[in-house]
Hints:
Blueprint: E1 3-8, E2 12-18, E3 33-38, E4 41-49, E5 52-53, E6 58-59, H1 60-70, H2 84-100, E7 111-119, E8 127-134, E9 152-158, E10 162-167, H3 173-184, H4 191-208, E11 217-223, E12 230-234, E13 241-243, E14 246-250, E15 257-261, E16 264-266, E17 269-271, E18 274-276, E19 319-320
Amino acid sequence: xxxGIAFVCPHYAGIVTDRLLxxxxxxxxxxxxxxxxxxxxxxxxxxxGLAEVxxxxxxxxxxxxxxxxxxxxxAQAGGPPVGTLEALDRVAQQLTAVTASMRVTPRxxxxxxxxxxxxxxxxxxxxxxxxxxxxFEHLSEPASDIARPAFSVGSVAVSGKLVSWIGxxxxxxxxxxxxxxxxxxxxxxxxxxxxxxxxxxxxAASDKDPTSIGKRCSTIIVLRxxxxxxxxxxxxxxxxxxDATANVVAMYGNIxxxxxxxQRLADVRFQGEAVxxxxxxxxxxxxxxxxxxxxxxxxxxxxxxxxxxxxYRLSGRSTVLATPEDGSPMTFVSNEMMKGF
Length: 341
């Protein structure tokens, strides 16, 4: 499982999640969250439950990003854009179809996706929302011990403040009240204080259940007014490589329709809040030092490579699995620099 927490208040929303993939995957530091943009909404998301089924070459992280992107595609060429609510229903249908034929125990097939952000309709102001796509739990009902045949979508509009969570731990009443008190004063309380409180709760849960919940965390903040997503990485010790969050833009039409995943910081050393990345230059036909498996000329030696997008400030490897529908150069302004704390 995992421990993923979503929160919404009038000025910002976001998610905080640990980075441990338990079970057969057994990865200590893997990202389980991302951001998605539709024509009427911008959300951070995370997932809990089934992470990978090797014999089916299935990874929830990859499949989810792909489904979120494809769900924004108009039903027919030139058709009307697909909004958030319709798109999430499509995601539920896609996940139902993909997992239906998997011979996995009903308990192990459980998956929940939690989203938090803002949706805007017509001339109205953006409204905070939390969505849950799951095959075993709902926002207002007890979770099931086994996976149901189909995924469903639960949604709630938030006029004030709300905290929700998924995974193998619960946010106790004392912690929940403390976070809600911070969100009550969201106009003056920095998002970092909310994030820190939730990171502390995840690490406390890790102390109780270290095989299911990790101490390293990823966080994504969505501001009510359109602006870059704010992505941070919280680590309890220096690390060499960091899987970054997925980014999905599913607006289609004349703007980007793509998702980017498996970006990675290489040779990272944390000193306070500073992050440095070092990939030395080599001959253009040599293997790139970032260990991407590509020649240097096709990786860090290629100044047009997507992995060198300044907005992410990553020096590593990335896989682009979709490109702008109209064939125009990709612009990517979604994430701030990742930091270590």
